[in-house]
């Protein structure tokens, strides 16, 4: 029934009949070799860049509005512009520590097309005037490490990386660094700490970006693997061509990893902005619908940290603003689908347990609160919880995220959406992420919790959950 | 304290609807606290970089983007900031965070040492939700584990605030404790097999906001509410840290640091923190001892002992030779004790053979005569510090902390000219180690710019680098001390003289180590000196009016005294807490001297090796057993606090001086410590204006520098006296005129009694009023100076006070001859000290004594390999003066051709030293 092309060497990837900016080479079994890369336009983007002034390259990227694909969706061109002028050395750090639950797109990009990433690094280095790149790859991704490592050796040997690249004045070194297995290191300042050899703990904000004070206290750009992988195409084809794909505010394509109760979980490169969640979950060229043709119960739209959506939100497009107004975020490009058979409290527990385990331990509310949430939730899931526990989940969560917490609208419950973002008492988003699934599950499926702590004599009494009535802005 | 100056810039912020003014650059949490709004906190410590980890201090702040939750310890104030510390949201967050901090906390407050003074407990009451909703199993760890010889860690109580770990890394520079594991399983711990062996580990116990860190000397000893607390000054070394002494039932149980800007910032070294244990040691002397006919020291009554001492002194005074009586020591006394003994020795006994140092320091003229720096000046942002001599980490640990901070955080430049690597070497821009005996030549070459050839074992490039660093250094502070006992003090003096001559703007911070050595020197316990940094000749006329008499000629220093004693020219030798056998850098001479003196009178707290040779032993009160004042290396006079009674019948040194003088027919005129200080203030040109009232003022809790700044000189004077002193030039010029000070004895010592109590009180009251006004001005001036520039406010010493003799100026002595080269079979000797040694304080503190590292002789690996024995094997070390047996150590930090021995570690390495040698060479023999 499903359409689209799959390849035995790119397990999980599904190609379709639509523009493919970063995954075009996945069709070749040897896509990760320099020979294939060069035969398919490889390093032409770099050559095009070198023919221009660095500022023109920067303008191209800025003009293309490449939204960061790590989770926050901040435009790469603008991020680059935050670097203070004239301060050297400056660094580019590639965030290949992809660990958000449900997200596995960067891994494929590194495994299947490492040269594309390297070329993207070189273009970025040229545009912002730096000569040192650190490529931080998640510790568990052995194949990605190997492929990128081999590709780097090839690129050095071929003169694409190193001194006087392609005979130009550009000299760039790329250092490969393997992570040690901490989710929080996906947060850019924690990644920088980790690179510096310290504990992977997020730095305090402000400064909100490491652009001015980053790695070793120097100006630093941290970009996601997918973000950089877009650059060769943009340099080859121009920002205008990029802008013709997708919408004005979300141009180009973006990669999505779909998991859960769908017929065909996998990674898809979709047209940004215009594609809807319904397209991706039900589209024959994408996930192909819910397994066993069950009903959709809920889905996580942007990685494990994101508040959940209901079928009510299926027609939202992949645009940051409407998704935020609807009470969640696009995040890292991971959709996790839960069908009607899903045990919602157990699903929430799975996610919360992950964040409790991954808390770095720095901030009190996250260190203590996340594991507390996990333990209360565990009790509820095990059928040993009380109504008091349900209230406790919300109250403990409110220490991490005081005030209104975003959630989706539910026609069934007569619930209006509470928009993104939230207030938080922690340095980074790990703490709130531990609470997000709890809050979504409790708010959108109160009866499943009531069932779990029932029977208690008064049936499905209202669950003590704070429900916001208006879409008023939480600052 | 309000700022009255107009020049200081202010930032206006709105705190809970009320406009307040904050200081630019100030942390929000501090600005709120100064304005009466306390925000709860755990990780924040004003002396360390904020980390924002505990999240307890989160409040709502509007910086123009609407109210947002922000940790107030991480935000610096900015104009227009609006803060709400009382909002519902703030309250919810603060209660929530506290509840979260407590969920895994064992709440074993009833058995916790911290209970009753615990920030977690206190803030749980003040800002917590009142009860916990946590019903789950708490986090479990093995209950307290020792992380060093002195500190226990209870990880269950720990709230992971990062204070101790931050202190270890950021303040102490000993990053030996760290967080390990992650998330809810995070714990503080040491690295495997690497204990938290920091000289500053006790500070982590003090700053721990819970009872997670406890120190062995205090564990389970007391409950905080049973403790009486009193501020005092640490007398372990000459840095003079402010401390709180906690006592209960006549026992000192704990010492904590007090945060003051000029000196210790709240930090203490472990020696200063824990050596209070010696106060109550069983070996403390509680009764006088007299040598019996059988040659034993046996307990005696005070009358008997004082009679014996009096007879000895009278006999010596009566004998024609002026070398009859000599007094050694006094560097551990209070200022008042030292003054009483100076007056007794010089004014009554008429001897100038008095020396508070034991040949292991620097000449008093150098220490008192060079332009003095403060610690703040040395630690000035962007300034330069030249350390000439000792390893400050071992000898003056808190000065090491301050200098380390200056380098690490304030851009100060550190240059070292030391005999070996030191604790500060890793922070030094340049660190050179001249061959002992050539230090002065090296300094000369650097200052002359003659860097064409190697000098004293230092390569030309290194000489040039130091010269470059010193060129244009502003301000330049020279920390000058005795780096090695095996190098003549004359060479250090010479080097300092050269520096003073070539760099007139440089100020000096003398790094003598004994607790109140500076007070003793200021009080005249040195040959050729009178109280108040006055030369004997310059002060003779003035003191002849104040005292019964003044010595007719300059006496001998410690070396001279011991030499004379060894030759039989000292009739009575008085030891004021001095142990020349252990400390004097010529063990042979010291032994001969103690044998050669006819009578040795020792005032001490313990029977040291030297005391064991004495004929009359008088037990004295020590630290925490005396009121009075002490003086630190800056010349800062601070107060001491008597907290416990001395053992047995031991009494203060000054009372013994008074008693002995009385028996010799002279009334010293002192009935109390306050009497003595009043006289010091009245006669000493360096202490004019520093009355007890001034010292007692809240604004002077950090002490007062002597001599005080011009503005402070008038403090404590009645207004008319100020006017007279200022207007009547004739008074100043004419020494025959009586001093205008109403408190001062008018003409003869006997008139000290003229100052009647009532008068004193009246004067004091008047004085206090003046003082308050002037002090406010001084503070304002200081604040202004601070605001104007980053330089610390410098108090200009007044060299001349009307009617009193001028202060000593340093006059460079003749350069000394350098020693010859080391012969091919010998190594040049360097001695160095360690913080923990066999010194009286450490050796009698059960917690500290075992961690003294023990004796050793360290050689560079190249030299070590030539010896051909294993590390730790004993070798025989011989010099021209003597021989000792020491375990051999291999040490890459030791320069080639040198042998480094540690002093006072159980083997008397002073056997190797000869006091007249410019340098000492040793040979290593395998026995």
List descriptors.
heterodimer; A: 475 residues; alpha/beta; Rossmann fold; Ubiquitin-like (UB roll); de novo design (two linked rop proteins); 6-stranded mixed sheet; 4-stranded parallel sheet; 37% helix; disordered C terminus; B: 927 residues; Alpha-Beta Plaits; 5 domains; 7-stranded mixed sheet; 6-stranded mixed β-barrel; 17% strand; disordered N terminus
User: How many β-strand stretches of chain A?
Assistant: 10
**Overall morphology of chain A:** globular
CATH class value of the largest domain in chain B: Alpha Beta
By secondary-structure content and strand pairing, the structural class of chain B works out as alpha/beta
Q: Rg of chain B to the nearest angstrom?
A: 29 Å
CATH superfamily of the largest domain in chain A: NADH-ubiquinone oxidoreductase 51kDa subunit
Instruction: Count the beta strands of chain B.
Output: 36
What's the multimeric state?
heterodimer
Counted up, domains of chain A total: 3
- Give the strand content of chain A: 5-15%
The top-level CATH class of the largest domain in chain A is Alpha Beta
């Amino acid at each position: 029934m499903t359409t689209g092309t799959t390849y035995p060497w790119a397990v999980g990837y599904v190609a379709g009949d639509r523009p493919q900016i970063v995954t075009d080479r996945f069709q070749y079994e040897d896509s990760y070799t320099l020979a294939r890369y060069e035969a398919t336009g490889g390093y032409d983007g770099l050559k095009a860049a070198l023919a221009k002034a660095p500022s023109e390259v920067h303008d191209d990227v800025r003009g293309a509005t490449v939204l960061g694909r790590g989770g926050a969706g901040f435009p790469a061109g603008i991020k680059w512009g935050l670097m203070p002028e004239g301060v050297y050395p400056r660094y580019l750090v590639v965030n290949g520590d992809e660990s958000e639950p449900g997200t596995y797109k960067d891994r494929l990009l590194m495994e299947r097309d490492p040269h594309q990433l390297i070329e993207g690094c070189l273009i970025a280095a040229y545009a912002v005037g730096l000569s040192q790149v650190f490529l931080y790859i998640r510790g568990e991704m052995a194949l990605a490490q190997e492929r990128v490592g081999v590709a780097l050796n090839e690129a050095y040997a071929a003169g694409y990386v190193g001194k006087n690249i392609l005979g130009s004045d550009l000299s760039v070194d790329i250092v490969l660094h393997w992570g040690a297995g901490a989710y929080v290191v996906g947060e850019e300042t924690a990644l920088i700490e980790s690179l510096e050899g310290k504990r992977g703990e997020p730095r305090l904000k402000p400064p909100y970006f490491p652009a001015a004070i980053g790695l070793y206290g120097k100006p630093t750009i941290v970009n996601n693997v997918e973000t950089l992988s877009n650059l060769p195409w943009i340099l080859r084809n121009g920002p205008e061509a990029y802008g013709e794909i997708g919408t004005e505010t979300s141009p180009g394509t973006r990669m999505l990893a779909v998991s859960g109760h769908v017929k065909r979980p996998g990674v898809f490169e979709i047209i940004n902005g215009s594609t809807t969640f319904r397209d991706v979950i039900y589209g024959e060229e994408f996930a192909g619908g819910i397994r066993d043709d069950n009903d959709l119960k809920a889905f996580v739209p942007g990685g494990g940290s994101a508040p959940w959506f209901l079928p009510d939100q299926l027609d939202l497009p992949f645009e940051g603003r409407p998704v935020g107004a609807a009470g969640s975020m696009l995040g890292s490009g991971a959709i996790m689908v839960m069908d009607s058979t899903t045990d919602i409290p157990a699903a929430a527990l799975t996610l919360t347990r992950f964040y409790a385990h991954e808390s770095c331990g720095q901030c009190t509310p996250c260190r203590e609160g996340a594991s507390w949430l996990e333990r209360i939730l565990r009790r509820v899931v095990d059928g040993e919880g009380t109504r008091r526990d349900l209230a406790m989940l919300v109250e403990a969560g409110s220490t991490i995220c005081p005030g209104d917490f975003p959630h989706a609208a539910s026609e069934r419950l007569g619930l209006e959406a509470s928009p993104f973002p939230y207030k938080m008492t922690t340095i980074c988003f790990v703490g709130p992420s531990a609470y997000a699934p709890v809050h979504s599950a409790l708010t959108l499926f109160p009866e499943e919790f009531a069932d779990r702590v029932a029977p208690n004599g008064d049936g499905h009494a209202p669950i003590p959950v704070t429900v916001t009535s208006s879409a008023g802005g939480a600052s | 304290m309000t700022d009255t100056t107009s020049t200081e810039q202010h930032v206006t912020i709105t705190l809970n609807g009320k406009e307040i003014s904050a200081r630019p650059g100030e942390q929000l949490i501090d600005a709120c606290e100064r304005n009466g709004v306390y925000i709860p906190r755990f990780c924040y410590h004003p002396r360390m970089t904020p980390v924002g980890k505990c999240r307890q201090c989160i409040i709502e702040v509007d910086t123009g983007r609407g109210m947002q939750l922000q940790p107030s310890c991480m935000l610096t104030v900015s104009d227009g900031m609006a803060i709400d510390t009382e909002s519902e949201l703030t309250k919810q967050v603060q209660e929530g965070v506290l509840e979260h901090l407590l969920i895994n906390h064992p709440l074993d407050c009833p058995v916790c040492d911290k209970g009753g003074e615990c920030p977690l407990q206190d803030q749980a009451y003040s800002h917590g939700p009142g009860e916990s909703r946590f019903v789950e199993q708490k986090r479990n760890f093995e209950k307290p584990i020792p992380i060093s010889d002195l500190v226990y860690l209870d990880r269950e109580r720990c709230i992971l605030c990062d204070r101790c770990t931050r202190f270890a890394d950021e303040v102490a520079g000993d990053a030996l404790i760290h967080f390990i594991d992650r998330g809810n399983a995070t714990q503080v711990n040491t690295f495997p097999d690497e204990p938290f062996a920091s000289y500053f580990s006790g500070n982590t116990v003090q700053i721990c906001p819970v009872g997670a860190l406890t120190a062995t000397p205090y564990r389970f000893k007391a409950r905080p509410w049973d403790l009486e607390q009193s501020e005092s000054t640490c007398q372990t070394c000459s840095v003079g840290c402010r401390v709180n002494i906690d006592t209960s039932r006549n026992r000192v149980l704990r010492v904590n640091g007090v945060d003051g800007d000029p000196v210790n910032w709240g930090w203490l070294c472990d020696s200063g923190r824990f050596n209070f244990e010696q106060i109550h040691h069983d070996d403390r002397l509680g009764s006088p001892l007299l040598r019996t006919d059988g040659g034993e020291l046996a307990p005696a009554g005070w009358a008997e002992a004082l009679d014996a001492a009096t007879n000895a002194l009278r006999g010596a005074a009566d004998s024609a030779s002026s070398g009859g009586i000599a007094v050694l020591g006094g560097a551990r006394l209070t200022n008042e004790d030292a003054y009483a003994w100076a007056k007794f020795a010089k004014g009554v006994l008429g001897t100038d053979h008095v020396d508070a140092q034991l040949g292991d320091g620097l000449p008093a003229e150098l220490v008192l005569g060079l332009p003095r720096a403060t610690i703040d000046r040395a630690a000035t942002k962007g300034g330069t510090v030249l350390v000439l001599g000792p390893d400050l980490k071992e000898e003056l640990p808190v000065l090491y902390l301050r200098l380390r901070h200056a380098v690490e955080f304030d851009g100060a430049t550190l240059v070292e000219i030391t005999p070996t690597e030191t604790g500060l070497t890793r922070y030094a821009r340049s660190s050179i180690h001249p061959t002992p005996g050539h230090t002065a030549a090296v300094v000369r070459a650097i200052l002359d710019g003659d860097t064409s050839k190697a000098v004293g074992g230092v390569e030309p490039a290194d000489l040039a680098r130091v010269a470059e660093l010193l060129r244009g250094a502003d301000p330049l502070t020279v920390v000058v001390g005795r780096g090695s006992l095996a190098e003549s003090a004359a060479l250090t003096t010479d080097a300092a003289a050269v520096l003073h001559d070539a760099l007139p703007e440089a100020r000096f911070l003398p790094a003598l180590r004994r607790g109140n050595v500076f007070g003793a020197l200021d009080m005249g316990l040195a040959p050729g000196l009178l109280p108040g940094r006055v030369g004997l000749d310059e002060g003779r006329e003035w003191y002849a009016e104040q005292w019964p008499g003044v010595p007719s000629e300059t006496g001998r220093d410690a070396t001279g005294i011991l030499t004379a004693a060894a030759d039989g020219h000292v009739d009575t030798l008085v030891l004021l807490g001095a142990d020349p056998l252990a400390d004097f850098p010529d063990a042979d001479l010291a032994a001969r001297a103690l044998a050669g003196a006819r009578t040795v009178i020792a005032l001490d707290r313990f029977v040291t090796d030297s005391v064991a040779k004495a004929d009359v032993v008088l037990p004295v009160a020590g630290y925490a057993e005396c009121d009075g004042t002490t003086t630190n290396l800056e010349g800062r006079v601070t107060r001491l606090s008597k907290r416990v009674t001395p053992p047995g019948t031991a009494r203060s040194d000054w009372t013994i001086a008074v008693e002995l003088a009385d028996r010799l027919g002279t009334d010293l005129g002192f009935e109390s410590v306050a009497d003595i200080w009043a006289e010091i203030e009245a006669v000493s040109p360096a202490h004019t204006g520093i009355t007890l009232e001034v010292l007692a003022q809240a604004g002077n809790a950090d002490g007062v520098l002597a001599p005080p700044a011009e503005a402070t000189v008038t403090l404590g004077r009645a207004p008319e006296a100020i006017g007279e002193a200022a207007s009547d030039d004739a008074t100043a010029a004419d020494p025959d005129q009586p001093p205008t000070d109403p408190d001062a004895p008018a003409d003869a010592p006997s008139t000290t009694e003229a100052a009647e109590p009532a008068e004193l009180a009246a004067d004091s009251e008047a004085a206090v009023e003046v003082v308050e006004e002037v002090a406010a001005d001084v503070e304002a001036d200081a604040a202004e100076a601070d605001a104007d520039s980053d330089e610390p406010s410098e108090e200009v010493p007044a060299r001349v006070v009307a009617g009193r003799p001028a202060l000593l100026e340093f006059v460079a002595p003749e350069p000394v001859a350098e020693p010859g080269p080391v012969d091919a079979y010998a190594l040049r000797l360097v001695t160095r000290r360690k913080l923990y040694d066999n010194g009286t304080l450490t050796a009698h503190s059960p917690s500290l004594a075992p961690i003294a590292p023990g004796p050793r002789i360290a050689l560079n690996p190249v030299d070590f390999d030539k010896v051909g024995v294993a590390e730790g094997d004993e070798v025989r070390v011989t010099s021209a003066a003597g021989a000792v047996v020491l375990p051999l150590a291999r040490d890459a930090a030791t320069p080639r051709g040198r042998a480094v021995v540690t002093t006072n570690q159980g083997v008397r390495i002073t056997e190797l030293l000869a006091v007249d040698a410019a340098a000492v060479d040793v040979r290593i023999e395998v026995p």
